[in-house]
Amino acid sequence: MKAGRAALAKKAKKKKHDEHIDESWLVPYADILTLLLAVFIILFASSSVDQEKLERMSAVFNQVFDGGTSFLDQPSPIQSPNADSDQTPQTQQNSAYLKDQQELAQIKDSVDNFIAVHEMEGQFATAMTDEGLLVTIRDSILFDSGKADIKPEYKTIAKELANVLVSNPPRSIVITGHTDNVPAGPNFSSNLQLSALRAVNFAEILLQSNSKLDGRNFSTQGFGENRAVAPNDTKEGRAKNRRVEVLIQPLVTEDGSAVKSTK
After folding, report:
1. Which of 62, 163, 177, 181 is the most buried (most CB within 10 A)?
2. Residue 4 lies in a domain
3. What letters, b where the CB count within 10 A reaches 16 and e where it falls short, cover 40-52?
């Protein structure tokens, strides 16, 4: 009887030691943690848009997950920084406008260099305006008082300026004449006529100087004394008002649309 009890006790004790805690739930838990870590690493790598880093990460994940398909082989929301799809229509419009303004600025630099080389800072001036690049020329270096013919000694200067105005694609150029309020004299009916003829003569010199300039891109106008930039009651003021302006227009407006051609 005692031997039977001892055998049962021994069997029960052995059974008790054979029992252990079921840890099978740790496997999916570890998988979840691994996946979460992978997601965070992908997000971190993606945020820097580093293609080389993403490729390295893809190779690591392929090894971890037994050679699964690379996420780089799937359609990716990450696009190349230079891809057109990255740019919204508004961004593309702004880029076109900024590029055009940079090109105008380069033309301005060329004109400024032209002015510096000839030491004509007192006779020439450049400015970027809402309408384009404005080159102002004091008419005293181009014309004698009461005349519309360009002085022979300054025709060479006009020819060199023509070279600076060549661009591809060509830009519209507006030549405008202005006078002071002193009467034009017997050869002209008004200062308006004098200013208009001076603008025409200057435009013709530019076109004759360089065959790459197309007359269809040029227009001329004269305002006489009607758009003074200084008072006409002083000698200095009248000198500022007597001028020829060359407006080099942009190709793209601020809203990204093309400027209408003058052709």
Report:
1. 177
2. no
3. eeeeebbeeeeee
